Batch of 2 targets.
Target 1
Amino acid sequence: MKIAIPVLILFLAGCGATGTDIENGSNGDTDPNGETDPNGDQDHNGDQDPKDDDEPNGDQEPEREFNPDDPGIHMFLDMGALLMMGDPMELCAGGFMPAAREDFDSPEDGEEIPLNTCVVVTQGDGPGPECTTDADCYPEQVCEPRYDNDEQPIPDSEHCVTPRDLMDVGPLTITGFNGGPQTLQYNPGQQGAYTTADPGDGQLPPGTIAYDTTYTIEGGGDPAQGLGPFEGEIRVGPQLQLTSPPMTDVMGGMPGIQVNPNQDLVLEWTGEDQDGELRITLSGASMMGDDGSIECRVTDDGKFTIPQEKVAAANLGDMAFLNMLNIERLGTGFVAGEGMTHHEIGMIQGLMLNVAVGGN
C-alpha cells in the first residue's frame, strides 16, 4: 500500500524520520522465527516483541502483545517542520488501520553512536530476503519486496507483511497550532491517509505549527469498527534555526552554507532543547559517482564542532546541489483509547541545506 503524499514521503525519507512507513504501513518486520529486520523503520514506541517477554517496552501505556484473533487498531501520525533547501514546509498526516503482527516487532537496535561523536557511514550489504514465498510467513502475511521512492522493487528485500487498508474511523482533532485546532479526516484522494481538508496533501499553511508547545490529539473513534474515543499528546520543541555557518548563495540563487573540508566545521543554532539530542549528517558526492557521509549524535545545546577529519570523510564535491547538511530533532508522542492496540506518533524538525566547498 502506497499513500500518495509525495511531499510527506520526501520529507520523512530525506530526514530519516522515525515512525510510520508511509509507503507500506509496515514497521520493523519480523519473520516467523522472530528474527528482526534490521532495515525495518524505527518504532516510536519501542513496543515489545511478542516472542521476547524480557524485552523492555518504551510505551507510556501497558504493554500489549499481538492477538491475531483480535488485533485492534494501529494509529500513526507524523508532524513535521522542515527548512528544505531554503523553502519552509509544515506537515501533518496520519491514518488508522487494523493492527498487524509486524507492528509489534521491535527492530534490532544498531550500535548507538556515542553522544557528541561523529562516525563515518559505510554502505554494507543488506541482510538479504526474509522470505521467498508466502509459505515462509505467518498465515495472515504475504512475502513482498520493499519499494524505493520511485516505486521500484528493491532486490533481495522480500519480507513478510500483512495486507491491510487504511480505515475511516471519523475525524481527529489536534489542538496547539497557531490559529486554532486542526481537524484531520480520511482522505480518499490520498488512499485513505488522514489530512486536513486544505490543501489535502499532508501540508499545512506556513506558520501553522506553534513551537515549544504540547499538542493534544483526540477523536471519537468508531465503535462499530472496534475503536472507541481516544486521546494523546505530542510536544514540539523550540524552533530550530542554524546561525553559523551563515546562509549564503551557494549556486545560482540556491541558499546553503559554505564548508572548508580542511578545517573543523563549527555549527551553532538557536532554539536549543537542553534535554534533547540532534542527529546531524554531512554528505557529499561528485558527478563521477564518488560519495561519502558522516553522522553525528549531539547534545541539543546550541553548538557542536565536527572535527576536520570527519568533514573530509564526507567527500564534499564541487557541485553544491550534491552536498547536503541535515540537522534533525526527533520527538515522539502517545495516544490511547479503547481498541487502540498500537500507535506511532512522531514529530521532526529538520534543516536540509546544500553545501558549497569554500570559506576560510
Target 2
Amino acid sequence: MLTFEERKRNNELSELRKPIYRKLYEYLPYLSKEQLEKVREKRGIITDTLSEYCRAIPFSRADLNKLFSDLKEYFPEHLVHAAGFTKVLYNKDYPELGAVYNCLERNLGNICFGYHDTEGDVYYIRPHKDHAKGQSLTPFRVDGRCDSVTILTEGEYKALASKQLTGCYTVSLSGLQSFSGANYGKLCKALDPKSEIILILDYEHKPKWVESDAETGPIHTLKLALKLEESGYRVRIGILPRKYASESTEGWKVDIDGALAKGMTAEEYAEVIAKAVKPIDYVDAVCPEIQVEIKKFLPSVSNLKMMERVYAGNK
C-alpha cells in the first residue's frame, strides 16, 4: 500500500501529465482494420464505439520516438522529462522519470484507452491492462444519454460494451479492490449521487480460486455494493445471463463484452438492468454454487435479511 507521501506525489504527477497526455492522444493513430476486427470478434464492440475512446500504440520504436519528440514543440523539454515522457534508464529513487515512455514502449502495437474528464478532454492514456509508474488509478468514464442510471463495471472494454448495448453513463474500474479501498473517494467523485448505481461485474464461478481463498467477482461485487449503499447511494446488482458464460479449466465466467460477442442483445441487457437486485437480495439471486462462495467469504451477509426483518419489526 502506498504511503501518504507516495499518494501525494502520484497525484502531483497526474496533474503534471494531464495536458501532455491530451496532446499525445491527438497524435496517436486510430485502430487499424485488423485491430478493429479482432476486438469486434472477441468482444463484440464495433468501430463507432471504439473510435472515441481507443487509439493504437505504434508498432515500431522509431514511430513512438517521433510522437514523443513532437511533444517538445508544445511543452518545455524539462516539463516533458519531469512528467516521464522521455526515455531514460530506470532509477529506483525517481521511478516516475521515463515512466510514461516505458509504459508505451512495452506495449508497442497494443491498444490504449483515452480517459476523459467531465468536459470531454483526455487527461490520461492507459494501455490495456497496464499503467505508468507514479500514475494514480482513476475511474474510466463513458458518457451516456441516461442520467437516472449509472452502470458500474470493471475494465474499459466492458464499459464500451455497456455503452453500445444501453447508452447509459458508465463508470469502469481497473483494479476493483483499490477502488473499494484507497481509491474509494475517486470512485465516489465519478458517481452522480442522484443516479441509481447498477453494478454489473464479472459473474463467475471458479472453484480453484475459492479453494485457495481467492475472492471471485461475485464476492467483490457484493462487498462494493454494500459499501456504496452504506455511503448513501441507491444500489442494485445486475446478473448477466449464465448462457453467455465462457468455460475454462478454472470454471466459468460471464462478462459484458464476452456476452456481447456471443450475441447478447440490447433487449437482454436492458432486462439485466431492469431485474437488478438490491444487495440484500443478491445471495438469493445467484446460483447455488456462488451462494456457497459468498457464505464462505462473507458469512455475515447471509444474515442480512434477518437483520433487516428485525430492524423493520422494531420501527
